[in-house]
């Protein structure tokens, strides 16, 4: 790590950790959705909306701190990119839950549980990684594993699309379910964006 003579604003580390912890909470709500009766889904969606609002607040706090800090722990554009990508994850997860409720989906297609399990694992890894931004140590395995998970998510997504288009579902149902699995895939992509940003930061700071 480079030696610095100037002090740095350290509150960013805590805010990134809080944002990632909130994503873990969101991923648990996704897992809860899988086993819930249709009658319970609206309440889960309400809790997910609250988590998404908390994520927005965390992102705005980071941006406010960024705009008011003269010295930052790493490049401003990387702080902005990391905060935005974390926020994107929460947005996509909330959108997926909301669509399940709005479309009144009775049964999610086989394979969605695998998508959500990948997201839950990526959320755990991301939350574990954020505190390491302070030292930039022990992060390599994190971004390697998240990239592996994103590749796994791609494969699951392709299989889901093939399943949706096998003739079992009518056209309207296909459109609804495809939108849901596509949004879950976007969440996996957003986790990879976070990991790639962390790798960029670590390389710059080494």
Automatic annotation (TrEMBL):
<comment type="similarity">
    <text>Belongs to the UPF0111 family.</text>
</comment>
<dbReference type="InterPro" id="IPR052912">
    <property type="entry name" value="UPF0111_domain"/>
</dbReference>
<dbReference type="Pfam" id="PF01865">
    <property type="entry name" value="PhoU_div"/>
</dbReference>
<protein>
    <submittedName>
        <fullName>DUF47 domain-containing protein</fullName>
    </submittedName>
</protein>
<dbReference type="InterPro" id="IPR018445">
    <property type="entry name" value="Put_Phosphate_transp_reg"/>
</dbReference>
<dbReference type="InterPro" id="IPR038078">
    <property type="entry name" value="PhoU-like_sf"/>
</dbReference>
